[in-house]
C-alpha cells in the first residue's frame, strides 16, 4: 500500500476519533495535518513518475 494512502487512512481515523472524544479539537487538527501531508506526498510522488 502506498505511503500516502496509509497517511490518508490515519488522518481520517484521527478526525473521526476527534469528533467522538473530549480531546477532539487536538485530534481533529492532527488528522487535518496528516491528511494535508499525505495529499502533498501523493502529488509529489505522481509528478516524479
UniProtKB/TrEMBL annotation:
Transmembrane segments: 28-45
Domain of life per record: Bacteria
Highest classification ranks of the organism: Bacteria, Bacillati, Actinomycetota, Actinomycetes, Micrococcales
Keywords per UniProt: Membrane, Transmembrane, Transmembrane helix
Protein name, UniProt field: DUF4175 domain-containing protein
